[in-house]
Amino acid sequence: MSASGSIGGTARREPHTPESTIGRKADYLHAESTLRSWFLTTDHKRIAILYLVSITGFFVIGALAAGVVRLALVVPNGAIMTNDTYNKAFTIHGVVMVWFFLIPSIPATFGNFLIPLMIGAKDLAFPKLNLTSWYVFMAGALFTLVSVVLGGVDTGWTFYAPLSTAFSNTWVLPALIGVTIVGFSSILTGLNFVVTIHTMRAPGMTWFKLPIFVWAHYATSLIFLLATPVITTALILLIAERAFHIGVFDPAYGGDPVLFQHLFWFYSHPAVYIMVLPGMGVISEIVPAFAQKKLFGYRFVAYASIGLASVTFFVWGHHMFVNGQSDLASLVFSALSFAVAVPSAVKVYNWTATIHKGSLRLDTPMLYAMGYIGLFVLGGLTGLYLATLAINQHIHATYFVVAHFHYIMVGGTVLAFLGGLHFWWPKFTGRMYSEPWGRVSAMLIFLGFNVTFFPQFILGYLGMPRRYATYPAEFQLLNVLSSAGATILAAGYIFPMLYLVYSLWFGRKAPANPWNAKGLEWETASPPPTHNFLTPPEVPRIPYDYPIQAQESRDQHG
Amino acid sequence: MSQPLADGVGVARAEHFESIAQQRAAATLGIWAWLITELLLFSALFLVALITRIQHPEATVAAAKHLKFWIGATNTVVLICSSLTMSMAIEFSRMGWQRAMVRAMLATAALGGLFLVLKGYEYYADWDEHMMPFLSSRPFALAETPAARLFVNLYYVATLLHALHLFTGIALLLGMTWMAAKAGFLARHQNWIEIYGLYWHFIDLVWILAFPILYVVNR
What we know:
Chain B: Its main location: membrane. The structure holds two protein chains of two kinds. By secondary structure, chain A is mostly helical. Helices cover about 65% and strands about 0% of the residues of chain A. Chain A is built from 18 helices and no strands. The longest helix of chain A has about 35 residues, at about 255-290. The termini of chain A are close together. Chain B is mainly α. Chain B has one domain (about 40-220): Cytochrome c oxidase, subunit III, four-helix bundle (Four Helix Bundle (Hemerythrin (Met), subunit A)), CATH 1.20.120.80. Chain B contains six helices and no strands. In chain B, helix 2 packs across helix 5 (about 145-180), helix 3 packs antiparallel against helix 6 (about 185-215) and helix 5 packs antiparallel against helix 6. The relative contact order of chain B is 0.19. The chains are: A mainly alpha, B mainly alpha. Chains A and B meet through helix 8, helix 9 and helix 10 of A and helix 1 and helix 5 of B.
């Protein structure tokens, strides 16, 4: 970059907001307005909006269930509700949040909307399949939701045998069938992304010009394809076991309940990366845009995505350190789990190196991104405690685990989801949200999250087990603190829902590129026309071609 | 594409693709990706069956001796023949021989149907010999060996899942044959035959894996 050398450390921004483009008839939101045009659409952008509305609904349901759980734990003796109600509440929370919010969250919404835009394509490779995946998702998810609400399933989201097969008297069977169906929607989405990224890239868009968001979704899609079928088999066997007592998870017939855990975690550990990798992709887009600086170590971040997606298939045993697994197996799984830290750290260091000496602007998406980085580090490092065999013995199945994965799932994925939602909101809707409200909410969520979950690390360290409706009285203070934090967190979630919806009608009209960001999605209008680009987009010479570049990048690209 | 297509045979381009070659590449990669997921689905099941066999060798062999080896073997031949007729349908589609293609597709569906009939007869014979341990109302012939019960139940899960794939495959094939018999089909949708053929061969392949894992244990 010859130009970048002369501008030193300051970023160039456009002095005037470019003209808005929302008035044009051709954009995808205003092309047609009948219900039919939404429910039978094959436009990836509209399908993304369908997903966005649905998963927001599931998020609200899951959050309400979490509220019930935190309410129950305000008192130590379980006086607020019966133990059965408590079990059902945490099952609804887990099932809805994991299967119907976190797994589809970023891929099915942002991935669906942005991958074709980012690679310069008119749509995903299989638009009808894309719509089908939404219907499959809704059918399975609503079926399960009705089951867990009416029948009150009490197994937790993991459906461990033999509780789920022999002992639970609740509607486990319909819940399992629904979750199995939802799996097919994941497979179809992953398949569509893999094929699209392989075959639909615009001329000149080579693999190493792809945004990290696309790399992250490619890695995620591979996990969708290679792990989801195994959970389908596990769930089919679980359904057969519960309905017909086939014996596969029952020691009385030569089966083994731990076998279910192996099959379950062979999917569900990689599924953690289905939830995390897309968030990493979002952060890798936000950080360079708000630092106005080229992403540091682009290739390393891309390889780290694939690295995480590969290593994650070989660490499932760390969920079973205390379940009678052999010492050798535990040792190997422990060592491999430590290896996960390497690509994770590569990403964190590259984000922080991108921020270093950048021209920072702390708008809402960047606040979420910085929150993400901090919380992800804390969540990731506590994962190393859990991967250590000796320490795991003490904190296995305690609130330490609960806090750890909420730091990754909420502090990581949900913050990335909200950051991405604000970052691309102008692109999705053609409107700007309220920046002051955005910043206030981002900080409320950060505060509320930490007040809710940090005490749980301490509770777990002190030995409070998870999934119990009662606890010793000396834990009450920390539990009340955690529940109080949950109310702050709830307020932080409610604000965005209000001001984002408000902005749909009353927000300032958005220009094509409000953040002065790089990437093909910002080249087209906000909101984009039905076929994404009116003229074929010009693929840039290098990815993340921001005004500021680190010394190594300048040397490399001359 | 391994070989050139005859005149008047090809694919109509969908508007979101830039070229026919891109559309074909996407379809081919898509079906292979789908087949990999299907392979994993069955692999997990076969793995569980193999684990059972390793953990309980005597009970597994005793149970496998009750399976109808010769019906299974015949069915293997039937499915391999159906893959042959499907391959012929693909060749005919490339050459533009529409009538021959439709007949080959009908033959494929008929062989698939024959497989299901034989399989159904086998299930009936199993029922007759009290080899349906998952039915709580009917006593099991090998009740004294619990692991035999497990293996036989896994046999039903695996073969029913395969039969479900085959049934879906036949339904799709008949629907496509009905469309393929109309004029102009090969000019617009020759690709469908190629893509579908891969799925049919895959169903065949799964049976070729299932047969030794479930039946040949008793030889």
